[in-house]
UniProtKB/TrEMBL annotation:
Residues 8-89 form the Retrovirus-related Pol polyprotein from transposon TNT 1-94-like beta-barrel domain. InterPro entries: PolX-like_BBD. This is Retrovirus-related Pol polyprotein from transposon TNT 1-94-like beta-barrel domain-containing protein. The lineage of its organism: Eukaryota, Viridiplantae, Streptophyta, Embryophyta, Tracheophyta.
């Protein structure tokens, strides 16, 4: 399944890409219970139950494959990590009302 950019928050403080809905993953690996967790901004932690790849349709119409995305059902906002995108060579341009 391809997800729309409108379903995500581009987060300069996030250290990982995180998505809450299993159906968005194009490939998937189950994480053993308790093996990995995410610490959130509200000082809570929650378990990661799976991870791998999500396809993201950008506002420009281009497709971006996000790797090592964490599946965290308890997350309220799906997060794209700006720092991880930069490490993979993706350039981000913020325009008035969209991300190009």
């Amino acid at each position: 399944m391809v997800t729309n950019m409108k379903d995500w928050v581009v987060d300069s403080g996030a250290t990982r890409h995180i998505y809450g809905n299993r159906s968005a993953f194009t490939s998937y690996t189950i994480v053993k219970k308790g093996e990995e967790q995410v610490f959130m901004g509200n000082s809570r932690s929650t378990l990661v139950i799976g991870k791998l790849k999500v396809l993201l349709k950008l506002t420009s119409g281009k497709m971006l494959a996000l790797s090592d995305v964490l599946h965290v059902p308890d997350i309220h906002w799906n997060l794209v990590s700006v720092s991880l995108l930069g490490k993979t060579g993706v350039r981000i341009l913020f325009d008035y009302d969209k991300i190009v």
